[in-house]
DNA sequence: ATGCGCCAATTGGTCAGGCCAGTTGACCAG
DNA sequence: CTGGTCAACTGGCCTGACCAATTGGCGCAT
């Protein structure tokens, strides 16, 4: 295999270099970068090239360009890379563990401020989920609605967003492949039952119960997944990552 | 009313226009765009401006620029908004509430699996934070390291990422302006003390204590913020900008 | 001494024109 | 028909310049 002579365009190299300096902290958050003209000189490139690189960083949300003032570092980390090439993402087990910890806390909180309208939201998601066990798309959408719905009960947009984002990570290419094997009408029926238990606990204002029910749900979900995972990849270590899958045991 | 004067930077206007043509299907997927020189002429702007606009679209993954060949439409829809334009609708208070719920749970979990190396991570962040109370950038970096460090103790990459992302949201332009007013050596010293309480509880394996300490920390942080928030907006409308005041009232 | 307004240095925004290098397709020799 | 060559086209990058917004300091008036 011959490698396709990578001759990266200059402005990308410059962007990478600056991005690295920001990530490493060499350019602190809030700090002003040297002027475009100075950057061009220091990097031995022309100003247009520097500008193009800076525009890339601006689009990525790393820097803030203010006319007449300067260029400022906004944050260190690209919260979302081009999404297409997003981090080698975390493994499915890590994700489920994280969801267990976070969503248990949210369910607990939601039980403390449940109102009829919020419960109605969950009920709607439940009926949609149990009603369409043969339509994978519909079930997943309803599943998502249920989980974000719990966050909605708390009435906090950030929680809703975070919950949704974590749910959506199951759509990562790697995750997706396996999902088709372990997701089926049977597992979904179990999931609906577990959802209903969560809903009932929240409706009853039972914080501890809601937390426990959510933990059961995500633990079971993890178990269902790991079973088909074992079949699929018996023996192989999860993506060759050094991270021990054992860490995935929930101890909350 | 005077016309909006359209002061947006040119390359952004050009990018928007081309993006629109792609979205509307006027430029089909796979089709080649006119040459940069032609685009410049048709849009009555210079070629560098067209180039900058095209680089924006390339970073967004809408087009593929091939040297010597041309520019091709890759897909119609921007899968994810460019982060900079990402709805920041959530208010600072909502963010702090969400962090309280989530990070309390993480701290609780961390207390259950604390190991010397993890504690060392927190200690390092603490010393860096207390050591540089006069360097805003250093303190914020250390602050971030402390919070993500707790997630690191649990050993879950997803938790680390989520914690970091929530922390970084304080860098939103709206949040930032106020931060400079309520953040100072004094408030930071308080924050360090609260951090230390969290660290001690985790080191002692006291789950309930860690949870409580984290709650205290984020509640106090919210309080400090809300005080200066009141001062700042007591009457003056910041620079005549039509900023919406805090949308999120906290209901914890 | 203090507060206000003006001005100039600095910095990003845009333009014009030019040269180089890679791509592509037509054309021609074998 | 096959292969190679070449010229037109296209993006990549540079130089140098001017415009516009910002900002900090200087000087004037109070």
From TrEMBL, chains A, B:
Pfam families: FCD, GntR
Residue segments, region Disordered: 227-252
Keywords, in A-Z order: DNA-binding, Transcription, Transcription regulation
InterPro entries: GntR_C, TF_FadR/GntR_C, Tscrpt_reg_HTH_GntR, WH-like_DNA-bd_sf, WH_DNA-bd_sf
SMART domains to which the protein is assigned, alphabetical: FCD (SM00895), HTH_GNTR (SM00345)
GO molecular function: DNA binding; DNA-binding transcription factor activity
Domain HTH gntR-type intervals: 8-76
Protein name, entry field: DNA-binding FadR family transcriptional regulator
